[in-house]
């Protein structure tokens, strides 16, 4: 097999054997102090939800204790957690955002 074909074979094997990326849930946790409107704003700003969907998720978190904002690759999930946590901190709200393996 010539070098070009060998390289092609390696690329094909890598493509076939590549595992699907592990997905992580990003969740919001309930607390007694963060205003509902702030949570709705966070869901719209960082998770690109419309107001209706954001309100639905906020109420789920409020009544059930936690709710999923979305599923992402590990890096993107970690970035969302940092962005949301930083934004909540800036506004002095205790809103907690965490990630967990799907
Ligand atoms: N429980 C909060 C309140 O009554 C609202 C809230 C919803 C807070 C979702 C956090 O992730 C949260 N103001």
Query: How big a fraction of the residues is strand?
Result: 15-25%
Cα(first) to Cα(last) distance is 42 Å
- Structural class computed from helices and strand pairing: alpha+beta
Bound small-molecule species: L-tyrosinamide
Number of helices: 4
Percentage of residues in helical conformation: 55-70%
Task: Report on the architecture of this protein.
- The chain is globular.
- A three-stranded antiparallel β-sheet has the order 2-1-3.
- Helices cover 57% and strands 19% of the residues.
- It is of the alpha+beta class.
- The structure holds L-tyrosinamide.
Question: How would you sum up this structure in a few lines?
Answer:
This protein is of the alpha+beta class and 102 residues long. It is built from 4 helices and 3 strands, in the order αβααβαβ.
Which terms would index this structure?
single chain, 102 residues, alpha+beta, 3-stranded antiparallel beta sheet, 3 strands, 57% helix, disordered N terminus, binds L-tyrosinamide
